[in-house]
Amino acid sequence: MANPSERRRFHRYPVQLPLVFMAVAPAPAKRGAGWTRSLSEGGATVELAERLRPQLSLRVRLQTDRGAIETEAQVVWIGGRAPEGGGILHGLAFTRIAPESFQTLCDVLLPLAMRRHAGIRLPLDLPVTCQPTNPPGSPLDGRTGNVNRGGLFLRLPRLLPPGTRLELTLHTAK
Fold first, then answer.
1. Does the pLDDT of residue 4 top 70, yes or no?
2. Which residue from 91, 106, 117, 162 has the least number of CB within 10 angstroms?
3. What backbone torsions phi and psi does residue 115 show, to the nearest 5 degrees?
């Protein structure tokens, strides 16, 4: 049998949002509040003050800086206490969400999804001149190998000590 992370269809992001919930049935209606621990297009891990029943249907309202997200959900798993004396962890699967709430959810998750890919390195082969500045040194001609938001992979004719500061000139076609 697959573990829960293998069955999951949506990537979860660590997001903490306040939430309120109301049990749909049975009467009397149970109400409560808590926090999300992770969030996806299909559900959330939430931290609540009390233990709910498995398969309980809920109406949930998440408050975001982009507006409220209102959804119906079902309790799909119940875990232990959160670290640092927190509440009880529950897994919720969203069962019904209005299009406007789904759009708000996507607007919250999109920047997180983009950040996830920030580490991807893109191939880039350009001539480069590197001038060591601290300590000063003679210029080195080399080539780039790849690039991402955090820096460049450089191919240089000699090894430089870690921490060497460089002034780079990328030579691009005109």
1. no
2. 162
3. -65, -35
